[in-house]
Design a protein that fits this description.
globular, 434 residues, 47% helix, two-stranded antiparallel ribbon, alpha+beta, four-stranded antiparallel beta sheet, single chain
Amino acid sequence: MSALQDVEGSEPPTADAVVVRLDQILEELAAIVPDSTAVSDAARIDRIAWLEKLRAVTAALQAAESVRFAQSQVAEQLAAEVHPEAIGRGIAEQIGLACRISPVTAARRLNTARAWWFELPNTYNQLSAGELSERVAETIVTETRHLDAEKRRQVDEQLIAAGVSKLGFKAATLCVRKITYEADRQGYVQRGRTERKHRRVGMRPAPDTMAILTGYLPVEQGVACYTALQQHADTTVATGDSRTRDQIMADTLVERLTGQTTAADVNIELQLLMPLDTLTNPDKDTAAVIPGQGPLPAELAREILTTSQGRKWWRRLFTAPKGSTGSGPIVGGDPTRRHFDGWLGQLIRLRDQTCTDPYCDAPIRHLDHIIRQCDGGPTVLENGRGTCERGNYVREMPGWHISLIDCGFHDGPHTIHITTPTGHHYLSRTPDPP
């Protein structure tokens, strides 16, 4: 993940009256945190309740501002004669930068805000009054997404009449599903059939050098997979295996997916970013880095190499000097190519690890020229950056500018400067190598 921050010394946006007031409220709330004045526990419960309401009201206000911002941006793009297929591009990206979240999450928030604003007015009113939690309000959007605008408003009215704001989250979800099903039974069934086309497998990093592998499957297939693992674990435990049932299930999953004899015998292409002396010297404890997944302690990295019985491919990664205390960035490349392919492309992916757009954790899909190739930008390591698909496309929209701040060949990381159509500035820095 890139190290990120707003550009130091950049001009702050024009502060209107609302921004000034919100800034004052933030200062007032921050001043309460260190306040050690003795109050009763009853008063503290009252504060907690009101702060929970404040969360809902803040979410409603943010949703309103997001919808109005999107409307204004679309109007500007239409006036600029942006291609119809690109209308709306870049809106979620700007919201994501402001909220410090990924563009995908920002797009989801914007879609939710639009649903509240245009099709679920009662839900939005309860949210803005602090009577309905943001989580339940989001669930209402998700569970009614297959309905047309008229039926969605009908469900919205029925949910308020049913007192959904007084229910716990699980009960509220069941209530929403029941009323939604009654509103359009055929549509509810068709939605289930359509969703099966979106089955997929994903992976994300977890704490303590672990990873979470997930499968989004039709319910009967998911149950069948889990039951098979459970039954195998029960049989194996009965033979006296010393592993726990959970460990047996996890190992069996790896063995059946990979065809390995045992889970530990991983056939790997080693792409551990680590100084060579750390790999060979047991006294060195500098952590390695698995691109896109995070740090791996040197001892565990050496253990993988020495204990795994599977095949291993070594990928040697050279780093430039960085003073006397550690290694510097990966270097190399071929400036004569039009595209970042071959080993040069791999170097960029290993250096950036994930999309370099601020707060975007998406995998790298495109390799982009910071200075466009049509503008004379060379195809070299320092002029390349890894992006997700939407990140590469959005920079072509009016008002977006990207420039190189630090090539990353010295003590600093590879750093780029991003300017959005509203004049806000952001820095994106690649992760420090081990």
